[in-house]
C-alpha cells in the first residue's frame, strides 16, 4: 500500500494554524515510521512497545498542554487533539498509553495537586522517566464509580488504602498511580508510588481487544502513604470525573484517527483489487460504502475541531465532550465494520489494519463512559432529568 493519505473532503486543513499542522505532521510521521512497523507483532503478542516510551517523550506528547516549567510543550487543545488523532491512527492502545499519562495522571496532579506534588511528578511524567496509571473503576462499579469500595483511612498522620481497581491501563508498568477512594471526608484522590508495600498490579490477559496495551488490576492491601499523598484540591466525584472529561476529549479525536486509517486502507485496497476484470472501486456498492463513511468521518472531524476550539476558549462542558466521544467512537466502530467487509477475507488478517482497529474500538466504545451512559449524559443536559438514577 502507498503512504497514508488523509481524507480531507472539506479542506479542513485550512482551519488549522501552521503550528497545529506541524504538530500533527510530526506525530503522523513518527507513527508511520516507528510505530506501525512493529504494531502487528505487539498486537499479536499482547504487548506494548515500551522501548518507544523515550521517543514519545521526545515528541512532547505526554501532557503537551501543560506549562513548560514542568518540561511540557504548552500546546493548545487542538494540537493535543491532533496528537490523539494521529496516535490512534496507529492503534487505540498507543493513544490510550499517552492519554492516561497526560489526561488521567498529569492532569489531576496539575489541577488538584499541591505545588510539591507538581514539582515532584510532572517533570518525571513529561519525560517518561515515570509512567502513571489511574485507579477509579472497580470490578463491580464501572458506570457508577461513586459506589466504589476502595477506602482510605487515617492512621496517625498517614493514610491506609485498601481495595481493588480493574481495567487499569498502564497499571503493571506504572511507577505512580492516582487512586480514588472513600474517606470519612468523601471521595478523595491519592498519589501512590507503586513500590509501596501492599501494592500490586497483576496484568489482565486473554483480551481480544486493545491487545497492544497493558491492562491491569490494582490490588491495595494496607498500602500506607503519607498525609501529603492526598490531592488537596479534589473532593467528591467531581475530581475523577473532571479527569475523565479531559481523557474523553482526546478520545473524540482518536476515533477520527482510527476511522481515517481504516478509510485510507479500504480506499487504496478497492483501487488495487480486481474483481470481474475491473477495480473493486469501480462498482456501485463499494462506492456507496466509501461515500457514506467519508461523510461520517467529515462530520466527526468538524465535531472534534469545534470542541477543540471551545476547549481553548474555556467554553467546553462535559456534556459537549460526551456528544463528541459518543458520536466519533460509534462512527469509527461502524466505519471499521463496513470497511473491513470491503477487504473480504483479507480483512481478518493482521497484514491489514482495519480488523485490528475494529476490535480495539469495541473497547473504546465501552471505556471512559459507555456509549449508553454518554447518551444519558446528553439527555440530562437537554432535559434536566437524570435518567440513570
Describe the structure.
The protein has helices at residues 18-45, 53-59, 77-90, 92-112, 115-127, 238-272, 284-312, 318-342, 354-366, 371-383, and strands at residues 132-135, 151-155, 158-169, 176-183, 186-193, 199-200, 215-225, 274-275, 278-279. The chain is α+β, with helices and mostly antiparallel strands and 389 residues long. The chain contains ten helices and nine strands. The chain is globular, with a radius of gyration of 21 Å. The chain has three domains: 12-127, Butyryl-Coa Dehydrogenase, subunit A, domain 1 (Orthogonal Bundle), CATH 1.10.540.10; 132-229, Beta Barrel (Butyryl-CoA Dehydrogenase, subunit A, domain 2); 238-383, Butyryl-CoA Dehydrogenase, subunit A, domain 3. 51% of the residues lie in helices and 14% in strands.
Mean pLDDT: 97
Helix coverage percent: 40-55%
Number of helices: 10
Global structural class = alpha+beta
The CATH homologous superfamily of the largest domain is named: Butyryl-CoA Dehydrogenase, subunit A, domain 3
Give the C-level CATH assignment of the largest domain. Answer: Mainly Alpha
Shape: globular
Biggest β-sheet strands, sense, barrel: 4 strands, antiparallel
**Gyration radius, in Å:** 21 Å
CATH architecture of the largest domain: Up-down Bundle
Count up the domains: 3
Low-confidence stretches: none
> CATH topology of the largest domain, which one?
Butyryl-CoA Dehydrogenase, subunit A, domain 3
What share of the residues does DSSP label as strand, in percent?
5-15%
**Sequence of secondary-structure elements:** HHHHHEEEEEEEHEEHHHH
Number of strands: 9
* Alpha carbon gap, first and last residue: 50 Å
Strand order of the largest sheet: 2-3-7-6
Amino acid at each position: 500500500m502507498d503512504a497514508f493519505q488523509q481524507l480531507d473532503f472539506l479542506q479542513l486543513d485550512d482551519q488549522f494554524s501552521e503550528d497545529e499542522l506541524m504538530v500533527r505532521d510530526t506525530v503522523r510521521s513518527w507513527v508511520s515510521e516507528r510505530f506501525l512497523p512493529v504494531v502487528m507483532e505487539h498486537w499479536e503478542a499482547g504487548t506494548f512497545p515500551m522501548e518507544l516510551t523515550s521517543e514519545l517523550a521526545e515528541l512532547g506528547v505526554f501532557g503537551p498542554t501543560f506549562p513548560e516549567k514542568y518540561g511540557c510543550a504548552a500546546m493548545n487543545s487542538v494540537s493535543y487533539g491532533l496528537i490523539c488523532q494521529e496516535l490512534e491512527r496507529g492503534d487505540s492502545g498507543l493513544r490510550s498509553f499517552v492519554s492516561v499519562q497526560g489526561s488521567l495522571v498529569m492532569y489531576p496532579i496539575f489541577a488538584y495537586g499541591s505545588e510539591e506534588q507538581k514539582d515532584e511528578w510532572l517533570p518525571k511524567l513529561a519525560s517518561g522517566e515515570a509512567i502513571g496509571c489511574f485507579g477509579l473503576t472497580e470490578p463491580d462499579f464501572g458506570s457508577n464509580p461513586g459506589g466504589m469500595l476502595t477506602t482510605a483511612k487515617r492512621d496517625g498522620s498517614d493514610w491506609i488504602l485498601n481495595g481493588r481497581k480493574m481495567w487499569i491501563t498502564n497499571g503493571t508498568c506504572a511507577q505512580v498511580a492516582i487512586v480514588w477512594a472513600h474517606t470519612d471526608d468523601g471521595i478523595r484522590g491519592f498519589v501512590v508510588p507503586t513500590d509501596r508495600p501492599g501494592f500490586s498490579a497483576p496484568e489482565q490477559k486473554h483480551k481480544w481487544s486493545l491487545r497492544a496495551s497493558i491492562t491491569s488490576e490494582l490490588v491495595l492491601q494496607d498500602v500506607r502513604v503519607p498525609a501529603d499523598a492526598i490531592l488537596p484540591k479534589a473532593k467528591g466525584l467531581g475530581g475523577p470525573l473532571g479527569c475523565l472529561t479531559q481523557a474523553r476529549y482526546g478520545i473524540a479525536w482518536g476515533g477520527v484517527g482510527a476511522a481515517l486509517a481504516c478509510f485510507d486502507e479500504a480506499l487504496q485496497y478497492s483501487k488495487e483489487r480486481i474483481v470481474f476484470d475491473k477495480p473493486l472501486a469501480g462498482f456501485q456498492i463499494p462506492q456507496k460504502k466509501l461515500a457514506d463513511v467519508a461523510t461520517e468521518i467529515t462530520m466527526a472531524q468538524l465535531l472534534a475541531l469545534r470542541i477543540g476550539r471551545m476547549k481553548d476558549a474555556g467554553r467546553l462542558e462535559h456534556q459537549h465532550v460526551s456528544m463528541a466521544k459518543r458520536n466519533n467512537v460509534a462512527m469509527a466502530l461502524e466505519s471499521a465494520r463496513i470497511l473491513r467487509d470491503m477487504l473480504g477475507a483479507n480483512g481478518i488478517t493482521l497484514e491489514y489494519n482495519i480488523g485490528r482497529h475494529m476490535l480495539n474500538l469495541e473497547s473504546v466504545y465501552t471505556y471512559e463512559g459507555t456509549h449508553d451512559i454518554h447518551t444519558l449524559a446528553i439527555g440530562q443536559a437537554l432535559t434536566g432529568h437524570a435518567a440513570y438514577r
